[in-house]
Design brief:
two-stranded antiparallel ribbon, 11 strands, single chain, nine-stranded mixed beta sheet, binds adenosine-5'-diphosphate
Length: 289
């Protein structure tokens, strides 16, 4: 493919020659550097990033649920919590205490179902202490979660990315060989420019987007289970189609989910809500050795 007339990207800019470069005409596109090597004792078949345009849209919830659904299908799953300043994965799974390690490297914590988890909150003396570190330090920690952790026989490593398009997502895109990303969004953000920024960053970096997961698209009544759509149907599907990205799943606001997360018992959730995302990941995995 020819390089993009607007961004001169050496990646396969999908808009090359069409004047619709995702860089919006910026001249500098970050070069993809050589990926970091994983720990020599680690084994990971595929790596999927879970991203969002901004915080609080349920990215960690979706990461955790995908991990749960994959684990229930018999896959060996890990979660690298790259949301270093807002880590919420350990709490959802009721994980406390410190990660163990040896001279060789760091061992992930394990949930009841055997999901392997590495998070800064499993390393701090006080999990409520804020992480007040500058971007390069945070990025360095995330890289170490890839290079120094002995991930054990993973079929899928999910990376819970920090929100937005800043330093740390850029580091992940450049240093970890992602097989694809899933972008989580609320309905409002999906139709606004916020999600487009995440989508365009991935395109510019040459990272494959498996699809969108729309979260909080409806409210589920705890008594009768009926779902009330908060925004008329059709808007988000149309927005996704315009961006040429599949809309994989719609997850309603479910008070039971929030309760289980707060109680550290997410693994007791027995519904499958993310079939589309799980199928897309399984399809990506099928092409891997
Ligand atoms: P992010 O990772 O995008 O910052 P979180 O996954 O931490 O967002 O979600 C923010 C809050 O919303 C959490 O308290 C979480 O439990 C809750 N939440 C997210 N999605 C849902 C949902 N579908 N139903 C109920 N609560 C949800």
């Amino acid at each position: 493919m020819s390089s993009c007339t607007s961004c001169q990207s050496k990646n396969s800019c999908p808009s090359a020659g069409e004047g619709q470069c995702p860089s919006g005409g910026q001249e500098q596109v970050p070069e993809r550097q050589t990926f970091d090597e994983p720990h020599n004792l680690a084994s990971v078949r595929s790596i999927i990033g879970v991203c969002s345009g901004k915080g609080g849209v349920g990215k960690s919830m979706v990461t955790s649920l995908i991990a749960l659904e994959l684990a229930k299908k018999g896959l060996t799953v890990g979660i690298l919590d790259a949301d270093v300043t807002g880590p919420s994965i350990p709490k959802a799974f009721g994980l406390r205490g410190k990660l163990s390690g040896s001279e060789d490297g760091i061992f992930p914590a394990q949930t009841h179902l055997g999901i392997q988890v590495v998070s800064i909150n499993l390393m701090l003396e006080n999990p409520e202490a804020p992480v007040i570190w500058r971007g390069p330090v945070v990025s360095g920690v995330v890289r170490q979660f890839w290079t120094d952790v002995i991930w054990d026989g993973l079929d899928v490593l999910l990376i819970d990315m920090p929100p937005g398009t800043g330093d740390v997502p850029l580091t992940v895109f450049q240093s970890i060989p992602l097989d694809g990303i899933i972008v989580v969004s609320t309905p409002q953000d999906l139709v606004s420019m916020i999600v487009k920024k995440s989508r365009n960053m991935a395109l510019m970096m040459g990272v494959h987007i498996l699809g969108f997961v729309e979260n909080m698209s409806a409210i589920r009544c705890p008594d009768c289970g009926k779902e009330i759509a908060l925004f008329g149907p059709g808007y988000t599907a149309k927005a996704a189609a315009e961006m040429n990205v599949p809309l994989l799943d719609r997850l309603p606001i479910d008070p039971q989910l929030a309760e289980l997360c707060d109680a550290g018992k997410l693994e007791s959730y027995d519904q499958t809500m993310l079939d589309g995302a799980v199928s897309a990941i399984m399809a990506a995995l099928a092409g891997k050795p």
